[in-house]
Amino acid sequence: MNDKKSVPATRKQIDWVITLVPLAIICCMSVLFFAFPNKSKSVLTSIRYVLGDRFGSYYLIIGVLILSISIYMAFSKYGDIVLGGQDEKPKYSFFTWGAMMFTCGLAADILFYSFAEWVLYATDPHVKSLGSIQEWAGVFPLFHWSLIPWAFYLVLAVSFGFMLHVRNRDKQKFSEACRPVLGKHTDGILGRLIDLLAVFALLAGTATTFSVATPLMASIIKIVFHVELSRITLSIIILLITCAIYTYSLLHGFKGISILAKICIYLFFGLLAYVLFVGGKTGYIIDTGIESIGRMLQHFIELSTFTDPERKTLFPQNYTIYYWAYWMVWCVAAPFFIGTISRGRTVRQTIVGGYGFGAGSTIISFIILGNYSLGKELVDGIPLIKSYTENGDMYGLIINIVRTLPCSTMVLIVLILTMVAFYATSFDSIAYIASCYSYRRLKDGEAPNRMIQLMWCLLLIVLPIALLFSESSMSNIQSVSIIAAFPIAAVITLIAVSFLKDAGEFMKGLRGYTPRGRTQEEAEGSARHEDSEND
Q: Which compartments is it annotated to reside in (predicted)?
């Protein structure tokens, strides 16, 4: 990026096909959705139903496979590989690295859903059949937002980090990570299709994600500051302010992004600490959280492979498959960014640290905010479930939950600031990765031209603003995102296999080298064991 060591890339290297074709497709589809909302929604819903219902097991299998590969990467011989020079030290402290990693993806969504996602499960027939709300309503949010979703991020982050910092490849694209398996086909039609699909998924996922919580922030502003503007108008203003913040941050390079990320984390954990210690439900939150983690781990394999063959409730189709697909679509941007900032860390440090900071922070958020509101329902008797089932207003439900806290107005303001900061840091990483995708070649140490970065900063904000004018269009674009995840899942698996192949070849060239943190005897013993396996 634009730090002191970065060199701006030339505009001659811009790949206009990869840059403009996916954008043109998204814009054309948006126009069609707006002009023919019912017909387009019907077509996309049918396609999404086929993929989710007929091929739902495909998404579940990919999820289990990628989680298994992440564990293997971390604790096998590959875990010792440093993403960079093998004696290189991490550029960022663990806290700064973790803050940038957590905030580059779905952090705003995590904060949004943490308050009340348990309500969705509490009203689902499948969850009711398992047991009480107390036992299961807090389990599924932890399951759907922790281990398998972060496995998608971390496996790809390691693969991209290895590609960029160890192999020093000058194409920062999805297709390039597949080169060890695809070979010369990477530079042909197949490679181009993979890259077009990746940018298309990035734009579609971005358009829906940044339309999720802006209406919540607009509703809070209307209540707190008594603003007379409509929710749509306020949402657009919020997005424009967010655009200004992340554009300024991005154009100031890693330093700007790291500062903004740390501000996010301070606000985020400050909010969590306030709810935990001031909300009056500390004991209940901790007890229910520990119980939910235990139940999730105890039933993890069952939860990961539940397909509802008789289609009694369609629970996995409505939730688990949807979430896996949604995280897969987001794998185009966030893992590239995580791989970029992980230079100097070993594969093991990246994966274990990623689970610790990324998945750990996610779990803490759902435990504290979710169990606070769950306690208000089950212990204090506030009818949150009834309120949601009667009007279906998730935004109003979250505001009502926050208003049960002491100094609720202050909490609402902090919530707005945190979500704006989360959105800004997420846009930072997406705009940077999209800028990198705009180049045919981009060597390690080169940064996209500032004008290209500025172009993407502006383009990424246009579609979310347009979608705010039509709820049906937003629903359709979300369906496009889920459909896009079907081929993306295959590409993710291909990238993981490519890493294992390429890393194996790399380690053969390290014979006699002592990996960081290992003695010479341990290294030699590992080499002998590898030889015996090969024999």
A: Cell membrane
